[in-house]
């Protein structure tokens, strides 16, 4: 569990350095949806567990970013 949380925090940090805070709840939702769609593509495409895990980490990181930026 510690590794998972560490990976999510690291992904959150990378995204926060690369992109400005969300401008609105709509933008935050759109970013989360985009990441979720990428995870769904992995699931439908029967990608490796590692690739699916990477996408799931990105979904979690963007959800945390949404909470921190907007709520």
Overview of this protein structure:
By secondary structure, this protein is mainly alpha-helical. The chain is built from three helices and no strands. The chain has helices at residues 2-18, 25-44, 49-70. It starts with a helix and ends with a helix.
Give the structure's gist in a few sentences.
The protein has 71 residues and is an all-alpha fold. Helix content is 83%, strand content 0%.
Q: What is the radius of gyration? A: 12 Å
Query: How many individual domains?
Result: 1
- Unreliable residue runs: none
Head-to-tail CA distance between termini: 26 Å
| General form | globular
Mean pLDDT: 95
| Helix content percent band | over 70%
SSE pattern, N- to C-terminal: HHH
Q: Report the major sheet.
A: none
Let me know the number of strands. Answer: 0
- Total of DSSP H or I helical runs spanning 4+ residues: 3
How much strand?
under 5%
Q: Quaternary state, please?
A: single chain
Main structural class? mainly alpha
């Amino acid at each position: 569990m510690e590794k998972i949380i560490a990976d999510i925090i690291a992904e959150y940090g990378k995204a926060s350095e690369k992109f400005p805070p969300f401008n609105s709840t709509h933008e935050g939702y759109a970013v989360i949806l985009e990441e979720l769609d990428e995870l769904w593509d992995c699931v439908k495409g029967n990608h490796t567990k590692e690739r699916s895990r990477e996408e799931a980490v990105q979904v979690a990181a963007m959800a945390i970013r949404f909470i921190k930026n907007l709520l």
